[in-house]
Specification:
With about 250 residues, the protein is α+β, with helices and mostly antiparallel strands. The protein is built from five helices and twelve strands. Among the domains are: about 50 residues; about 120 residues, no CATH class. The longest helix has 21 residues. The radius of gyration is 23 Å and the shape is elongated.
């Protein structure tokens, strides 16, 4: 989520079938080059992050789900050949890269585009639940509380389906919600968390609280008890109106 925090993120990977010592060398050289680049372009990087922090996303279209994009043209990709040998430490069979380079022309998928979007609201209204507050605080997201109950014009998300992935990923089964936002007069109780989107971490706010986001609280299984208690409505509300007295 580094990109959602308006910072540059670097993915460092090495080829699985290289010997371990070669992977260490490749990773070290890659990190050295990244550090060299960052040093030479430090002013640009700092300015880009500062500009992103100041930019409000309220009212703008924000991607919630993505898909890989196929390159317009084929490019040359270096392939190799593998051999199988016994690991000298574990005794298990492993694959190792041979010193063979086989250039092949093919399409590549190295960028992404939004497959589903939403328009960022002014604020989200989150029930005063411990797990929600803990996650917001852990990410450094700014929020306040309603001082007293209020009626606010906004939207509530009516759930049409709720499914879990068959396979676990990182210790949980992803939950996917479908449905639609509906306009409503929202009766919001005192103590509700008011999370403004107009803050440096606005994109992260949207990704955590939108029900259709691939990384929302519900997707990571943090809303199981809440969703079981109040179907078919998603517990987080949103509004593009000004929110009354908060503390």
């Amino acid at each position: 989520m580094i990109g959602l925090r308006n910072r540059l993120g670097i993915l460092s990977e090495t080829f699985s079938y290289l010997p371990f010592q070669d992977r260490i060398k490749a990773a070290r050289r890659f990190v050295e080059e990244i550090c060299n680049y960052a040093q030479m372009h430090s002013a640009e990087i700092i300015q880009a992050a500062a500009d992103a922090d100041r930019q409000s996303i309220v009212g703008r279209e924000i991607g919630l789900r993505g898909r890989a994009v196929k390159s317009a043209e084929q490019v040359e990709i270096l392939l190799t050949e593998l051999t199988t040998e016994k690991n000298p430490y574990t005794g298990q069979m492993m694959r190792r890269r041979l010193d063979v380079r086989k250039p092949e022309m093919m399409y590549q998928y190295i960028s992404f585009e939004s497959s589903e979007t939403t328009v960022a609201p002014r604020a989200y209204l989150v029930p005063a639940l411990r797990f929600a507050q803990d996650r917001l605080e852990a990410h450094g997201i700014t929020f306040s509380r309603l001082e007293q109950a209020a009626t606010i014009r906004g939207e509530q998300f009516r759930i049409e389906s709720s499914t879990q992935a068959e396979r676990e990923y990182e210790g949980h089964r992803e939950r996917a919600l479908t449905g639609k936002w509906e306009p409503a007069e929202l009766n919001v109780p005192a103590g509700t968390l008011v999370v403004p989107v107009d803050q440096p971490l606005g994109r992260l706010v949207v990704m955590l609280l939108e029900p259709r986001s691939q990384d929302c609280l519900a997707a990571w299984g943090l809303m199981e008890d809440v969703l079981a208690q109040q179907p078919p409505l998603y517990p987080v509300l949103r509004t593009s109106e000004a929110v009354p007295a908060i503390r």
